[in-house]
Amino acid sequence: MLRSISLISKRSNSSSSAALLKTPLYESHLALGGKMVPYAGFEMPVLYKDQSHIQSHNWVRANCGLFDVSHMLQHNFSGPSAKALLEKITPIDLASLPVNSSSLTVLLNNEGGIIDDCIITKHGEEQFYMVTNAGCREKDVKFIKQEISSLQGDLNHNTFEGTLLAVQGPKSKEILQKFVSDFDLNKLTFGQTKFNKFNSIIDSEVHIARSGYTGEDGFELSIASSNDVETKQAQDFFNLLISEYPEVVKPIGLAARDSLRLEAGMCLYGYELNESITPIEASLAWLIPKARRTPDLATFNGSSKILSQLSDRSLVSHQRVGITSKGPAPRDSSSKIFDKSGAEIGYITSGSPSPTLGGNVAQGYVKRGSHKSGTEIDIEIRGKKRPGVISKMPFVPNNFFRG
């Protein structure tokens, strides 16, 4: 737990002096004994009463955990120019993305650096929904507005607040199906979405996405919370899940969310990703679809640099890798990485003890040539070099529902 708390505290420092925002589920967190911490400008639960970090983590791997991710920013884009905008600021291929499907992608600056990672859902040929990170709210909105101002054509963009609830774990479908009587949730595979009613508990339709950031099967629910009535319905639904099914469902905080995504080999913005790192350097080449790798269709920001790195990997100096180790866990960029000759070759971006595997899992950047799985390294931790191994990710196999 110490590693996760340390990472969360570091990420929160920039907002600690300002008034913290609260999500629609804030009062529920307090009632459940949530330990609240500053995170990306919000007051968020890191742990809950009578739960350790390891217990919370293991619960999600075996049962169903509820994560309040309402601090993340939701966007709608619509109009004839919406597709052109999104295909300029990200490398996504919206032409081949089916309606009611989503994809992970990245916002790119003109040098190919990553402004933020995000999920884009296609609701129609001119209608799209996007979720971006809480800690990047101001700069993301500023960036998008600047890009819209330089684009000719009709386009509507708005951001909105609401309850965003991640329901994660192998029993998540079993639980949510109890509230959706008119649709078989197994018809939604990973990456697919649907608007649906929740059996009279919530008046508005809920946006259901089979998605998540834990490596487990799960869903992300966008629930309208624009007034007191809608907010209370969202709170009542959250509370009901926990009170009615305590043997299966628990609320889970930020500490376990971090260790779960690390085991799943997923990036955290501000650690593995930033504006000086390209998707190729971040080992995210798969985010550049084949259709967007030709010069005539590579209209996205920074495409020249990114396509050059794709075709000639010698242009990539450092690359994101997975790392496993024993003993004290590597933490962040203060943990330098060395090859066995003693030469410094990189740095850790984030790491944690692995409740699932034992030992530690981490991510970092190393010089290309030292990036191959199985390469033995040394990691400097508290002034002492300790052995580690470059390892394939995900560290724990993903259990996404593919049908």
UniProtKB/TrEMBL annotation:
InterPro entries: GcvT, GcvT/YgfZ/DmdA, GcvT/YgfZ_C, GcvT_C, GCVT_N, TrmE/GcvT-like. Residues 319-396 form the Aminomethyltransferase C-terminal domain. It catalyses: N(6)-[(R)-S(8)-aminomethyldihydrolipoyl]-L-lysyl-[protein] + (6S)-5,6,7,8-tetrahydrofolate = N(6)-[(R)-dihydrolipoyl]-L-lysyl-[protein] + (6R)-5,10-methylene-5,6,7,8-tetrahydrofolate + NH4(+). Keywords: Aminotransferase, Mitochondrion, Transferase, Transit peptide. The keyword Transit peptide applies. One of its GO terms (cellular component) is glycine cleavage complex. The keyword Transit peptide applies. GO terms for molecular function: aminomethyltransferase activity; transaminase activity. Pfam families: GCV_T, GCV_T_C. One of its GO terms (biological process) is glycine catabolic process. Substrate binds at residue 220. It is found in: Mitochondrion. Residues 25-289 form the GCVT N-terminal domain. Its main location: mitochondrion. Its EC number is 2.1.2.10. Belongs to the GcvT family. The glycine cleavage system is composed of four proteins: P, T, L and H. The glycine cleavage system catalyzes the degradation of glycine. This is Aminomethyltransferase.
